[in-house]
Amino acid sequence: MNPKSPTPFFFAGELIAGFQLIRPLRVRELSECWYACRRKDRTPAAVKFLRPEHPRIPQFYDVAEFLKTVSCPFLIRVFDFGETVSGAPYAAMEYAGGGTLRHHLADHGKIPLPEAVQLLHDMLCGLATLHAHGMVHRDVKPDNIWLTVDGGFRLGDFGLVLLPGYLEEPGRIFGTAAYMSPEQARDSTSVDARSDLYSLAVVLAEALTGERLRPKGSFAETIKFILSDRSAPPVDRLKIVATEKLAILLGRMLDPLPALRPPSAAAVLAELDAMTLPKRD
Question: What range defines the domain where residue 150 resides?
């Protein structure tokens, strides 16, 4: 844990709704997440808490209920959710023991094509499920993609998800600048499913090449770069590490104009399934 992080509100050993907290994974001003285990069967779990003053508590509960009831193996599933006796909203969820894609890339630099194809497939399936229920993730990035111990991928961290029925102040810009679509860099409240496709393609390009598409910089610097960038999608670079058809598909997902991208995750999945691509052993 970062020594500059806020002090956790909970403590190791505490029992919350049948889950015993073991160690903090991430502590922020308005939330914290703990590695825990379910007391009755020792199942590993991650338990996220919100402070009572968190502005997105209703959305948190709606997403937790969705992830508890939906049948999709590519989204982090929720075991239970509710409110602690101290009034803190919580959600106990699946713990993917393989770590994040960010850590995997830091250790290995990039991933081979068969693994990248699996990554793309699994994330498209997860996004298709979200989008079918009117949701937009808005923060698809390596830090929010988890590996299971058997090599599968899970999409997690739904803290910025756009939910139907909730009004947001137009014109706000939020998310992770290095992975956001051009339209999200203009107004993060008015994006649709095609924005998630763009972000996913940025992730795939980084995973395949081992290089980030955008230069490092502050949030403001990166937003300025996105809005001024007129370069074409890096199809030629992708052809070196992927098949021509896959490189072209990723290039279309990276088109700066949403209207020129594939219309949905389901449409991309259909194109992907029609390709002859290497598969993982």
Answer: 101-274
